[in-house]
Give the backbone structure.
Amino acid sequence: MAPGDRDPSRVRSFVAVLIDDATRAALATQVEILRRAAPRVVWVAPENLHLTLKFLGAVDQVLLEPIAHGLREALSGASAFDIQVVGLGVFPAATRPRVVWAGVTAGRPHLTELAARVQTAVAPFGFAPENRPFSGHLTLGRVREPRRDDRLSSLIDDSAGRVFGTVRVVAVSLMKSVLAPSGARYSEMTRISLGGPKSS
């Protein structure tokens, strides 16, 4: 646990797109299949599945409302759009996987634009851009021991083109993460609605 997580004046936060129940259920079913093949992976609980636009870390509580205001301004004029959640993959490579993810195909340019707007909103508060280009994905699991796992690789390859769902992105959420013995629990602090319509 990072020092900021123990400080009651700071809130572990991130900015995300939440997904619909049907897509969540499809991903949860796939995670159960993967879990049987790869028990050494720490799998994300279905209720925690989301698409991160920006991880903020431990944020001083007094900054949460100004950050929310900044997000509202930066997202003003952004339109709702569709994304399609398709296929599985790993970061950084199959020979040493650290993260198992579900990908985004249709709607990816709109998602990248949304992430850029979020970065613009949080930059004045000291949140620097990531070192690598934004890559929209949903984290499904984190590997405890990054080494090649042929069973896991085979299941991921078999699901390369599987469509898990189409998500209508109508809002961006400022989220709170609370660490507990049973795992992280996420809750929405602020929801910023997007305009519309815009198709993928």
The domain at 3-191 is CATH 3.90.1140.10 (Cyclic Phosphodiesterase; Chain: A,). The mean pLDDT is 91. The chain has four helices and nine strands. Strands lie at 10-18, 41-43, 50-60, 81-91, 99-104, 137-143, 163-169, 171-180, 183-193.
